[in-house]
Design a protein that fits this description.
Residues 140-481 form the GS catalytic domain. The chain is of the alpha+beta class. The chain has helices at 5-10, 21-40, 67-73, 140-153, 187-192, 194-206, 232-252, 302-313, 315-322, 328-331, 363-366, 380-397, 414-420, 429-437, 440-446, 448-464, 470-477; strands spanning 45-51, 57-63, 75-77, 103-107, 113-114, 121-129, 156-170, 211-216, 222-227, 255-258, 274-280, 288-289, 341-346, 351-356, 368-371, 423-424. Helix 8 crosses helix 12 (380-397), helix 14 runs antiparallel to helix 16 (448-464) and helix 15 packs across helix 16 (448-464). The chain is globular and about 65 Å long. The two termini are 28 Å apart.
Length: 481
């Protein structure tokens, strides 16, 4: 449903986004036009995707000629998917669980695109509604929309982008066999898989994704793609589309792509860093980046500093959403560029918050905050909603940042870290969940149903891997996200 002025002004609950009869008619008409266009381009089916609490992208598909009906009345699905664990076993929470009930998936038509990597297919993220047209309280996209509306009510917006890291394996087995042998960041890795990388870039371009850069990464067979920043809802939609495009191109080349936070127990894992910039909307000269042009640390305005400080304050609790797998904590260790300490620094890649100014001359548009302690096991919609809520709380409280850290925090004497308030982030998912459950700001922002379900799923996966070796955890997680 498109936002109305009333929902933008309110933003107090998901009820503001309910579907009514006229809206269903309008959506059906738009979908009918889109279906005719897609059919003319050879598209025969549309994948409707949502991301569950365990971070896995799930899907239902409809023939293109059924798109009009799906847009107006939805596609049936069980709410139990919200309590699936990463191995597809099922737990039950206070709000979700069991076989009873029905939800309706509705495609987001503004994000409906043919998938260049899957000829004959189109993709649309889905919103989930109850049968009466009210949004499902676990619909992560609606939760993120609510949070962007809350910021907008104060005159603020955010631009966001996810970095996507993945490791490429040869063969169809469960083991990982690096698809290239070149050195970390080496041109050799580009040369070895030049055709594959060309096809990844081409498919993303033809799907409408603006790629900023692609490069080989540190771990064996590992690459990273960065995309242009956009509004939070679009950024989350885009990262799902990017990953599914990479997955499809990999399969076409006889390869397999892993986005897991820990592909192999003895190697560095895949991060899922998030870039954020806060913008003031009600200035006379157009939107202004609060992360630049101010008198605060590294040129931040007071609002930009407060937004960053709000995120820094809540990092331990945020990890239950942003580093949500047991395998995440095999990756999140000191001195591995995984950013295992709660601190910030200017261009410090070992700080959990890396402040990026951009080059001289572009800082008014480029300055942003990179949250580095996160990975791709996260549901991107819930993660952005939680990050925005933490930043919004910082804005409301006028928080200030501590002094920046310009070294690897692990190399600082423990006494100095203690004196400067540089604390280790949770070393296990259990610690992160405990911090999350104790955090009233995040629970209030996400809603009690989301908060309870997040904690329930996390504890289910903790029990799933109780006593498991790092090798077993990595093996089970490797191909799931």
């Amino acid at each position: 449903m498109e936002q109305t002025p009333e929902t933008a002004a309110g933003g107090t609950g998901l009820e503001a986004y309910a579907l009514g009869g006229r809206e269903r008619t309008r959506l059906g008409g738009r979908a009918a036009e889109a279906a005719r266009r897609l059919a003319g381009e050879g598209v025969v089916a549309v994948a409707l995707t949502w991301v569950d609490v365990s971070g896995i992208t799930r899907a239902k598909t409809v023939p293109v000629e059924r798109l009009e009906l799906a847009a107006a009345w939805g596609v049936g699905m069980s709410p139990v998917f919200d309590v699936f664990l990463l191995d597809d076993s099922i737990v039950s929470g206070r709000y979700i669980g069991g076989p009873a009930g029905d939800l309706r998936l509705h495609p987001v038509l503004e994000r409906l695109v043919p998938m260049a990597a899957l000829p004959g297919w189109a993709h649309a993220p889905a919103l989930r509604y109850a049968q009466d047209g009210t949004p499902h309280p676990l619909d992560a996209r609606a939760v993120l929309r609510r949070e962007t509306d809350r910021l907008a009510a104060g005159g603020w917006s955010v631009k966001a982008a996810f970095e996507v890291e993945w490791a490429v394996s040869r063969g169809g087995g469960d083991d990982f066999a690096p698809a290239c042998k070149g050195p970390a960041y080496g041109m050799t890795r580009v040369t070895e898989l030049a055709g594959y990388l060309r096809d990844v870039l081409g498919a993303l371009q033809r799907t409408g994704v603006t790629v900023v850069q692609l490069h080989p990464e540190y771990a064996a067979g590992q690459y990273e793609v960065s995309v242009a920043a956009e509004a939070p809802l679009g950024a989350a939609d885009t990262t799902v589309l990017v990953r599914e495009t990479i997955r499809a191109v990999s399969i076409e080349h006889g390869l397999a792509a892993s986005f897991s936070p820990k592909v192999e127990a003895g190697s560095v894992g895949n991060g899922g860093h998030v870039h954020l910039s806060l913008w003031r909307e009600d200035t006379g000269d157009g939107p202004a980046n609060a992360m630049a042009g101010g008198s605060g640390p590294c040129g931040m305005t007071a609002a930009g500093e407060a937004f960053a400080a709000g995120i820094l304050r809540r990092l331990p609790a945020l990890l239950a959403v942003g580093a949500p797998a047991v395998a995440s904590y095999l990756r999140l260790v000191p001195s591995h560029w995984a950013s295992a300490f709660a601190c910030w620094g200017l261009e410090n890649r070992e700080a959990a918050l890396r402040f990026v100014t951009g080059a001289e001359g572009e800082r008014a548009t480029a300055a942003n905050l990179e949250v580095k302690c996160l990975d791709a096991a996260a549901n991107p919609y819930l993660l952005l909603a939680a990050l925005l809520a933490a930043g919004r709380d910082g804005l409301g409280a006028g928080l200030r940042l501590p002094e920046p850290v310009d070294a690897d925090p692990a190399d600082l004497p423990e006494e100095e870290r203690s004196a400067r308030g540089i604390v280790p982030l949770p070393a296990s998912l259990d610690e992160a969940v405990a911090a999350f459950e104790a955090d009233g700001v995040l629970r209030d922002a996400l809603g009690e149903a989301v908060a309870d379900t997040v904690a329930t799923v996390r504890r289910g996966e903790i029990a799933l891997f109780d006593g498991a070796t790092p090798e077993h955890i990595a093996a089970v997680t490797r191909w799931r996200h």
